[in-house]
DNA sequence: GCCGAAGCTGAGCGCCCGCTTAGGGCGCCC
DNA sequence: GGGCGCCCTAAGCGGGCGCTCAGCTTCGGC
């Protein structure tokens, strides 16, 4: 852990599961390029150039440009789901768990903004099969948050009429952080996480 | 007013300011294509085809493909700002005005989802000058919402510590509706508008 | 009935895209 | 130390992109 980026969300070193080294460098380069310009505006020559390789090198490790996006999206969604599952399983009241889920989820979207941006906003560039796989992960993400809210309502901690709609709004709020968060802006990921946890507890009517 | 789409947000017929007729048809076709596939994945041949014209016809009415996006973005932001200004100027408490601002803003993002999607998510495809012009409009959008919240805090109606951060979150919540709203889904724009107005009033700590 | 302007099309230019192929360098194993 | 397999590059293919241009049709004014 040597840089601010690496400690974001207190997570393990990202992309370490991607081997060999050249494949990981290409993938990291693709994340940066996709986040900056969008998938369709990014060329394979740009990705290879950022990784210090020739355009042809990309095709040794990945069949197509779309496979790169698929791998990024898959790993990113796995990580997002892992964050929410960890929060949902911690001990404490529904209020505690919802606050932890929102703050850690938001910290990830802010601290790992480039990854989150690709993961959350380039889904439409995937083909039907890959998109279906990712959408299944998204339903699990939705389920984790909805579960906490349902428990809070059942236990009398929360006051929510439309659980599905509120779940959608909470996730939407967190995800959109990847769109507007600015690394050079006035807020740290931790600060946004704390603010958003407070706002979400208000949304579900949790007692102070 | 003959279709559900046209009555969304109770607004006037959109794009009527775009003349001549062929230019408007091209612009409407571009909105649909950009919303479906994104700006970079849309070809000028696709836009012209949707408008029932040859590819060359596009360049009689617009200098470049980017000018089309610029015009769409400009008109859309003007409309969004108009909606918020109207809500901010209505009579009533800050609570009433914030509820009206959020519900009408959300109704527009849901009911005019294709337009809103292009307006809110394709900003990065514009060149520096056009982007700067649009960002100025966004600051005005932000100012309208922040103004209502500040008045609510000053008048004791709201309980908000971080006004800027809360304003950002409220706008983020509304804007992201354009990403997830599904016309074939279970909720109408009116229903989402009402739900979101309630959630936002909770976020600012407005009394019931 | 003629003319110019406006609107549009068919053809296509030059460019850059995603991706392929042939072959070279280098380390590892016997 | 010779052969093999893994990575990688230089070069380039086929195609689709944004955009252009010469010329055709249509129509209002006189």
From TrEMBL, chains A, B:
Transmembrane segments: none annotated. It holds the Pfam family TetR_N. Residues 43-62 bind DNA. GO terms for molecular function: DNA-binding transcription factor activity; transcription cis-regulatory region binding. InterPro entries: Homeodomain-like_sf, HTH-type_TetR-like_transc_reg, HTH_TetR, KstR2_TetR_C, Tet_transcr_reg_TetR-rel_C_sf. Residues 20-80 form the HTH tetR-type domain. Keywords: DNA-binding. This is TetR family transcriptional regulator. It comes from Streptomyces phaeoluteigriseus. The lineage of its organism: Bacteria, Bacillati, Actinomycetota, Actinomycetes, Kitasatosporales.
């Amino acid at each position: 852990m040597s840089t601010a980026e690496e400690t974001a969300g207190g997570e393990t070193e990202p992309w370490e599961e991607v081997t060999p080294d050249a494949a990981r460098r290409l993938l990291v380069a693709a994340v940066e390029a996709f986040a900056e310009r969008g998938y369709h505006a990014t060329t394979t020559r740009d990705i290879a150039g950022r990784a210090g390789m020739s355009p042809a090198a990309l095709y040794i490790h990945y069949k197509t440009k779309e496979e790169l996006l698929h791998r990024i999206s898959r790993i990113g969604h796995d990580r997002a789901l892992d964050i929410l599952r960890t929060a949902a399983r911690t001990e404490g009241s529904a209020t505690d768990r919802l606050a932890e889920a929102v703050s850690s989820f938001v910290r990830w979207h802010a601290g790992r903004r480039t990854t989150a941006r690709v993961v959350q906003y380039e889904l439409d560039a995937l083909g039907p099969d890959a998109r279906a796989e990712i959408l299944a992960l998204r339903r699990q993400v939705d389920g984790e948050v909805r579960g906490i809210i349902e428990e809070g309502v059942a236990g009398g901690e929360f006051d929510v009429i439309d659980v599905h709609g509120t779940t959608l709004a909470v996730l939407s709020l967190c995800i959109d952080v990847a769109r507007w968060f600015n690394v050079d802006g006035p807020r740290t990921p931790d600060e946004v996480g704390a603010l958003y946890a407070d706002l979400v507890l208000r949304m579900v009517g949790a007692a102070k």
